[in-house]
Amino acid sequence: MELLEQISENLQNGFDEKVALLTKDAVERQIPPEEILSSGLIAGMNVVSEQFRNHHIFLPDVLLAARAMNSAMEVLKPLLIREGIPIRGKVVIGSVKNDLHDIGKNLVGILLKGAGFEVIDLGNDVPAEKFISAAKNENAHVIGMSALLTTTMPVMKKVVDLAKDEGLYGKVRIIVGGAPVSKEYALEIGADAYSYDGANAVETVESFFPVNS
Amino acid sequence: MNDLLARLRNGEILVSDGAMGTMLFERGLRSGECPEAMNLSRPDVLEDIARLYLDAGADIIQTNTFGGSPLKLASYSLGDAATAINRNAVAVVSKAVSGKAYVSGSCGPSGKILKPYGDTDPELVYESFKIQMQALSDSGCDVICIETMMDLDEMLLALRAARECAPRIPVMTTMTFDATPRGFYTIMGVTVERAARTLEDAGADVTGSNCGNGIENMIRIAREYRKHTSLPLLIQSNAGLPVIRNGELVYPESPEFMAEKAGELVDAGVSIIGGCCGTGPAHIRAIKNAVSSYTEYHK
Questions:
Q1: Which residues of A touch B22 (CB under 8 A)?
Q2: Which of A33, A42, B18, B171 has the most CB atoms around it within 10 Å of its CB?
């Protein structure tokens, strides 16, 4: 079997040590790091995302695949940086203030990393100001917010309003999600997009970026 | 008060209470504060809430200890306060209900993902649950309710901790399922059948489901449980997933609607019916009335 295909399959099965070994092997064979990333690791994570979306696999499988991805990225990241290969995009994520549920948000982070994005996870209970300052300091392209309680959702609007005040609106795209959040709500507060689940969040973030030529 | 399990065995249908979080926010819980800390800072508020649900007709009133395990409290740097928080939580509800309802010690997930999928040692989670269960038991709660679990392994750790620290207190166990086109699964991939069989084998006294996607899905979940276990069933449904009406977020299922469906839950074999997110005293009162007339009619 072709090496990159083996990387993808082992990643789908969550074999982290094997994936790291195969990645080192691929590097030694002079396969360009960006090709290992896109045709091996991201290809594998795409399959995982798809199966997760269709409820054929569940969070445990995604977590194991993500760990395999991370183990390979430890090998690849220094090479990608050295060769100056631009990252796909930078996304700041977090659960909004006073909202302590973080499974959904963590999953979005895992899947975004799996799709090759750089993710800055601000954690739970993140105040509106912190989303904005992180997006500025990190030159992020996207802010992703999650809420699981109706009472915490107004923080999302505050982030959009602050982005307008600070001149970030339109430059940094804002995406929202979480059980009580809806497309209508996203529209109403002026967010760029709403995602109904983790895999859909990745598709949405991808849609913000022009296709690589 | 009569033994809870004996009443359930006798075929009695009991009603438990509704949501806690929204009630706390309406009564001064502020941004970034730990909801469970109010057991220490505002016991009057928790007494009030317990009394509202008691007046609505609930037979079982939960403590405000959903996030009361030391591991969970640690995210507010309150891990060391776990024993005091849980003890006080039971004390204030006991005071409010003064023997007219069962005091149910609530225990929710640790918020950690267990090894090998996450980074947390199961033993650590077990020890954390033990501290909470010991405090709930010592302060005299009538029943323990481990709820909103999505990982069956974590549920088993909490159940084992309850059995060890509180061997004489009945334990209720509820999991939260998503409705998918392929059936009901927790986010960790647990089916209703697996939950039902595993929890019965592990010695739970009552099992069932809470939160979810509205009461109609809960009826389906209850039927599925009934196929795979003979344990008494507990269902605490949310009032559906929130929608926007006139610019306001509302939970769509009215007290009348949920009450109308309560009979179907009883028909599905459910012994305890209560509410979750989006339900309040009005829902519980309506459910109580529906259950009373249903029982009267089927005597």
A1: 150-151
A2: B18
- Alpha-carbon span A93 to B122, nearest angstrom: 28
Q: What is the pLDDT of residues B147-195, one digit of tens each?
A: 999 999 999 999 999 999 999 999 999 999 989 899 999 989 999 999 9
Cα gap A173→A186, rounded to integer Å: 12
ipTM: 0.85
Q: How many CB atoms lie within 10 A of CB B91?
A: 19
Q: Tokens in use for A213?
A: 């030529």
In DSSP notation, chain B reads ---HHHHHHTT--EEB---SHHHHHHTTPPTT--GGGHHHH-HHHHHHHHHHHHHHT-SEEE-S-TT-SHHHHGGGT-GGGHHHHHHHHHHHHHHHHTTSSEEEEEE---S--BTTTSSB-HHHHHHHHHHHHHHHHHTT-SEEEEEEE--HHHHHHHHHHHHHH-TTS-EEEEE--EEETTEEE-TT--BHHHHHHHHHHTT-SEEEEEESS-HHHHHHHHHHHHHH--S-EEEEE-S-S-EEETTEEE-S--HHHHHHHHHHHHHTTEEEEEE-TT--HHHHHHHHHHHHHHHHHT-
Is A59 part of the contact surface with chain B (CB cutoff 8 Å)? Answer: yes
The tally of CA atoms less than 13 A away on the side-chain side of residue B43 is: 14
Interchain CB distance below 8 Å, A55 and B111? no
* B139: number of Cβ within 10 Å: 19
Give the integer Cα–Cα distance in Å for B209 and B222: 8
How confident is the model over B102-125, as pLDDT tens digits?
999 999 999 888 999 988 999 999
Q: Which of A55, A58, A63 sits opposite B113 (nearest CB)?
A: A63
